[in-house]
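Extended Data, panel c. Modelled sequence:
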Amino acid sequence: MRLIVIGTEYTGKTALIDGIQAWAQEKLGIHHHLDDHFSIPDQQMLKSEEHQKIMTGLPGVLKERFQRFQVAYHVRLINKYEDILLGGFHIEEVVYGPRYYYPEIGRVAETPRAWEEGMPRDSIMCLLTASPDVIKQRMKDDPHEYPVVPESDIEECQAEFEREYRQCWFRRRLQIDTSDLTPDQLLSKFLEDVIPHLTERDLAIRNARGV
């Protein structure tokens, strides 16, 4: 399964991706290639606080170029791996980049549709949403060390993600409201809702494993 999970910060992207990875390894014997590090700073790969601060402090022109290069690299990966999980990816970049990472540039060099031209047609996009009040509460309960979206921008960012989701060229798409879901409930709902979007290969693997 080639899956891109998008949505505003605190909608549950990382929880879902990690849940899918663990479930697939246990139930299907599949280890997805997983990349969930498209926010700045990259706390998944940059373990050093010093490096995170350096990345955050880079000039906007360098951030834009770095982000563009890493999206291009992962377009290659989504073509290379049949089982891959990407959190945020090119859609997150078009929403967050001009707003938070390089506002002085105010644009991205490649449009989301241009990136999608080079991706496999069996790629699935999953949009996660949640009510603004729920997102605000999650922010208070589990604050991120380097938050991206301030409370004042929640609704605007959600609208942008929803617009990009509607305009996406992928035919395999699903949307889940996580407002009232625990991580386990979110995983269960995704595993059920994604079935119509799976390839024959994906379905055969699940059927063979009885899941």
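The mean pLDDT is 94. This feature is highlighted in the accompanying rendering.
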